[in-house]
Amino acid sequence: MQKFYKLIEDKVKEALLKNDYQVQDVIISESNRPDLGEFQYNGAMNLAKDYHKSPILIANDIKMTLEQDPFFKDVNVAGPGFINLSVSDNTLLKYINNSDFSYPKNDKLIFLDYGGANVAKSLHVGHLRSANIGEALKRLCNYLGYNTLSDTHLGDWGRPLGLVILELQKRNPSWAYFDENYKGDYPKVGITSTLLEEVYPYASQKAKEDEEYLKEAQNMTKQLQERKRGIYALWQEIMEVSKTDIKKIYDRLNTHYDLYKGESDAEKYVPEMLTYLDKQGIVEESEGAKVIPVSEDNDKLEVPPMLLIKSDGGILYSTTELATIYERMQINNPNEIWYIVDKRQELHFKQVFRAAYKSKIVSADKKLVFAGFGTMNGKDGKPFKTRDGGVMRLTDLLESVKTESLKRLNENITENRDKIAEDIAISTVKYADLLPNRETDYNFDLDKFCSLDGKTGPYILYSTIRMKSLLKKAEENNFKYEKMSIIRGNHTRDLILLLTNLDNVLNNAFNAKSLNDITDYLYKLATCFNRFYTENIILKETNEAIRESWLYLVSIIYKVNNILLDILAINVPDKM
Ligand code: ARG
Question: Which ligand 1 atom is the nearest neighbour of the CA of 349?
Fold first, then answer.
């Protein structure tokens, strides 16, 4: 990746040195006064303090030096000492003709934990952002040269499974799974996802109303965690059905994992971890339970101890969480682990992370990162619910977007309508989901998100297809486009300038662990391209150098566009 901003920063730094000004870091930003320049340097004000000199004089010194450099087209000073810079055509041509957007590989390993599906419960709208943000962050890391490992971290070992198994037992007491005296392999009973989808909400509601039932369910969870033969075998059947189902939805969302591990895998590490923790001497008894105190002196709000073992000997979400870190450090030893989880789980992670560092399960040079995300609410800003007040299943949400996309799909398209509508629907959902900052809540507005105008998935797809068909027509006309030799026409320069910002956009997204800079950039790129496309008659241009330059630029914009859509895990249909 060519770092265009760095190039300018080096030039300015050199000019400063030449004028005997010493600075550590020169930071160039995009100009907020495009009428005055394309880039901006605001460091003269700080230097003025160090050198007891007026900033305008310093700015003028720099201006005089930079003006000599053909790299720049215009250098001017505004206000108290802002330096505005514009680069020459040659500089931009050189940049675009040598455009390389790839990053070298590095040897860091980032482990990403996202998706968070729960076995025996359907994925609901709350799981959407985890999958979308997590998958995109993983792809971004890979693009930037990092090695990654991804894991769904299935919720497969806790209370919901106790509930489901108990209810199945009540309904089918004769299943071999429940026969204490049964020996040999258990015959499968034909668990289906439809059955599970019905059983869990029923059992969960019942446990709220019936204390006896709740106790039985807790007992069932314990039997599962003790791996009682029949119960464990039934759990395995449930797991198989549920995992297949979960994978289907993740496939629809272009979300793929290296690992499909879960709480149950980590549980195997619990005894070993407990021994280790005991040796570290950080476990304390509290009302019969075992805890790890994790509060720190400058906590504004008290951070309660992390619960390790309940007084009845049972383990909790936090126990398997810590054991998962223990497991990942033993097996994969990543440099960083990123958790893309609902921001309401922040306290849980704070406790677990502190316990992990305190116990030295994780050494201080490694990073545990909580990347919490905001909620997707209904159009009215209230939690997203189905018409009858239930939790909205993710499949139902995707179907409703697909139906709407199909309805809006151009009638002239007769082939592959279903596949095209699916691609549009997924792009709609993903783009809308990744558009707000990760931590911000947003409201789901079907009409707005499906619109062909504005910051929407369909708008981006439409523009991408337009780029592609323009290039196809150029090829049909045997127009070559191997380089850019001249900058002419409306918005041509703006497009190149946008490209020079790509490296910043990607790095900002990586640092913030949020995709909003990328979705925003895609919108800017599409809008600028569409203006360029409408205002220049590209294929009919008779000056070959101009035509080739435009087409070459389009080919680069198209390429960058595809790189970014691929990072967001958005497929582009052939037509729409
Ligand atoms: N299964 C959890 C849920 O639905 C999310 C899991 C997130 N990942 C983790 N390592 N705890 O809330």
Answer: 11
pLDDT band (50, 70, 90) for residue 526: very high
Reduced to 3 states, what is the DSSP secondary structure of residue 124?
strand
Measured by CA distance, the residue closest to atom 3 of ligand 1 is 116
% of the chain beyond a pLDDT of 70? 100
Neighbour-count burial of 398, counting CB atoms closer than 10 A to its CB (0-12 exposed, 13-18 middle, 19+ buried):
buried
Atom 2 in ligand 1: residue holding the nearest Cα? 116
> What dihedral angle (degrees, nearest 10) is formed by the CA atoms of 211, 217, 223, 229?
140
Instruction: Output 383-391 pairs: Cβ under 8 A, ≥24 positions apart.
Output: 384/125, 384/444, 390/201, 391/124, 391/125, 391/126
In angstroms, what is the span from residue 130 Cα to ligand 1's centroid?
9
Ligand 1 proximity of 513 Cβ (cutoff 6 Å)? no
Q: pLDDT tens, 149-194?
A: 999 999 999 889 999 999 999 999 999 999 999 999 999 999 999 9
- Give the nearest ligand 1 atom to 317 CA: 11
- Residue nearest atom 12 in ligand 1 by C-alpha distance: 116
CB atoms within 10 A of CB 130: 24
116 C-beta closer than 6 A to ligand 1? yes
Helices 544-567 and 457-476, axial angle in degrees (round to 10): 140
Within 13 Å of residue 516, how many CA atoms lie on the same side as its CB?
11
CA 116 – ligand 1 centroid, Å = 4
Three-state SS at 99? coil
Residue 58 reports pLDDT greater than 90: yes
Task: Select from 302, 286, 317 the least CA-distant residue to 294.
Answer: 302
Q: Which residues of 176-199 are buried (b: 16+ CB within 10 A; e: fewer)?
A: bbbeeeeeeebeeeebebebbbeb
Q: What mean pLDDT do residues 427-433 have?
A: 98
Q: Is pLDDT above 90 for 388?
A: no
pLDDT digits (tens, 9 = 90+) for 456-507: 999 999 999 999 999 999 999 999 999 999 999 999 999 999 999 999 999 9
User: Mutate which of 111, 112, 113 to test ligand 1's pocket (most atoms within 8 Å of Cβ)?
Assistant: 113
Cα(367) to ligand 1 centroid in Å equals: 19
412-427 burial string, b = 16+ CB within 10 Å, else e? Answer: eeeeeeeebbbbbbbb
Q: How far is the CA of 121 from the centre of ligand 1 (A)?
A: 13
What six digits make up the tokens of 222?
């314990």
Q: Which domains does the chain have, with CATH numbers?
A: 4-87 (3.30.1360.70), 159-252 (no CATH)
CA distance 210 to 215: 9
Query: In 10 A of CB 370, how many CB atoms?
Result: 19
Ligand 1: does its nearest atom lie under 6 Å from the Cβ of 55?
no
Between CA 319 and CA 317 the distance in angstroms is 5
CA-based nearest residue to 334, from 358, 362, 371: 362
Structure tokens at 147: 């090695």
Whether 118 contacts 160, CB under 8 Å? yes
